[in-house]
């Protein structure tokens, strides 16, 4: 199964059934009553062909109504967004030829209905006390909130450690950029760290979606840690992709789409950046265009940064340009030229102080 599609499925359905939603309150009531239940969201043509019996209700959804209706044996059908109860006490008769790995009758029916109709189906186990979500080929069992909170907190602690390592790698790279000593090895090392941080971020977002109202503190911690990480990654890629006109947003998606435990190897990253295969990335020097460093200068508009890079090509030539030469660039007067020159000097001094040798 495509891991990215599964991740998207989990994020989408968890928003509907996360703690704090009316639907989750009703599901939890059914779970606590130990009655079990089968709930389908959406009533399309495919559903009409497999619904047998029951009665039409068509009323606004409420957790109390769901709880009472679940006392009957049949399935409950809601509208697509779970805001209305359409049918109750229905029998679902999906195609028995659809393959199912489930053992219980309720779960087997739920899986077949989800595969046949594409609708979200929620199975509440009476015996195992488990809520399982099905949609198409996807299956996801909701976990205990306490367990998720523990995992989310552990993931945040891991993210903090990786973020420190990433920040130091970015600082070291910046110092090397001013010294004109960057090789592909340093760039690739930072990209690997970006990959790890974004991977952990995605994992935490899945936990947050499942936690619902219980995940507010985790969300605050996540935002504080990595609020600008994608923006920094985009500037990094704009500095180092081979072709300036490359869609760096697509490049970032390419670099982070893998869900496997293994990070992309060095030559695969070089290829995604637009370069040919290299026998030794440690010996191949590369010069940044300067996007990442220039964006650290306060109040320097994007248009000015683009004009600077268009005229000078890379960070080294911008660094060595005099105030008079900078003044000649479109949109830069003498005052702004001095600001750029002083800004670059301050950033360089700070990077030299902060880097690890």
Oligomer: single chain
**Average pLDDT value?**
90
Radius of gyration from the CA trace? 27 Å
Q: What is the number of helical segments per DSSP (H or I, 4+ residues)?
A: 16
Strand content: 5-15%
Helix/strand/pairing category: alpha+beta
Helix content: 55-70%
Please trace the helix and strand order, writing H or E for each element. HHEHEEHEEHEEEHHHHHHHHHHH
Low-confidence stretches are: none
N- and C-termini, Cα separation: 44 Å
Largest sheet: 8 strands, mixed
Please tell me what the overall shape is. elongated
Instruction: State the total count of DSSP E strands.
Output: 8
Labels describing this entry:
16 helices, 357 residues, 56% helix, 8-stranded mixed β-sheet, alpha+beta
Topology:
Elements: H1 3-17, H2 22-33, E1 37-41, H3 45-48, E2 51-52, E3 55-60, H4 63-69, E4 75-78, E5 84-92, H5 105-117, E6 120-124, E7 131-135, E8 138-141, H6 145-179, H7 184-211, H8 216-226, H9 229-240, H10 248-256, H11 266-272, H12 291-294, H13 302-312, H14 315-320, H15 323-327, H16 334-354
Helix pairs in contact: 1-7, 2-4, 6-7, 6-8, 6-16, 7-8, 7-9, 9-10
Question: Care to give the gist of this entry?
Answer:
The chain is an alpha+beta fold and 357 residues long. The protein has helices spanning 3-17, 22-33, 45-48, 63-69, 105-117, 145-179, 184-211, 216-226, 229-240, 248-256, 266-272, 291-294, 302-312, 315-320, 323-327, 334-354; strands at residues 37-41, 51-52, 55-60, 75-78, 84-92, 120-124, 131-135, 138-141.
């Amino acid at each position: 199964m495509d891991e990215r599609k599964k991740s998207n499925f989990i994020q989408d359905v968890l928003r509907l059934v996360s703690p704090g939603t009316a639907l989750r309150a009703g599901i939890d009531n059914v779970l606590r009553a130990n009655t079990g239940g089968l709930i389908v969201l959406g009533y399309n043509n495919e559903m009409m062909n497999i619904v047998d019996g029951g009665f039409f209700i068509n009323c606004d959804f409420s957790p109390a109504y769901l709880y009472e209706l679940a006392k009957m044996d049949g399935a409950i059908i809601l509208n697509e967004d779970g805001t209305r109860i359409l049918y109750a006490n229905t029998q679902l008769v999906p195609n028995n030829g659809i393959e199912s790995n489930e053992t219980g009758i309720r779960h087997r029916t739920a899986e077949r209905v989800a595969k046949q109709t594409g609708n979200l189906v929620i199975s509440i186990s009476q015996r195992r006390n488990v809520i399982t979500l099905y949609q198409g080929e996807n299956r996801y069992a909701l976990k205990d909130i306490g367990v998720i909170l523990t995992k989310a907190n552990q993931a945040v602690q891991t993210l903090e450690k990786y973020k420190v390592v990433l920040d130091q790698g970015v600082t070291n790279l910046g110092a090397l950029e001013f010294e004109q000593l960057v090789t592909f090895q340093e760039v690739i090392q930072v990209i690997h760290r970006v990959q790890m941080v974004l991977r952990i971020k995605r994992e935490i977002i899945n936990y947050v979606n499942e936690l619902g109202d219980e995940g507010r503190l985790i969300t605050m911690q996540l935002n504080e840690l990595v609020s600008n990480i994608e923006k920094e990654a985009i500037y990094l890629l704009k500095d180092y992709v081979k072709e300036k006109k490359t869609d760096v947003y697509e490049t970032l998606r390419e670099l982070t789409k893998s869900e496997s435990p293994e990070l992309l190897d060095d030559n695969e990253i070089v290829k995604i950046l637009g370069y040919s295969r290299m026998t030794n990335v440690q010996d191949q020097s590369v010069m940044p265009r300067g996007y990442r460093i220039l964006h650290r200068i306060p109040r320097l508009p994007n248009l000015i940064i683009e004009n600077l890079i268009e005229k000078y090509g890379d960070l080294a030539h911008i660094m060595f340009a005099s105030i008079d030469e900078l003044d000649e660039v479109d949109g830069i007067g003498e005052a702004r030229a001095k600001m750029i020159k002083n800004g670059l000097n301050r950033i360089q001094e700070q990077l030299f102080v902060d880097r690890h040798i």
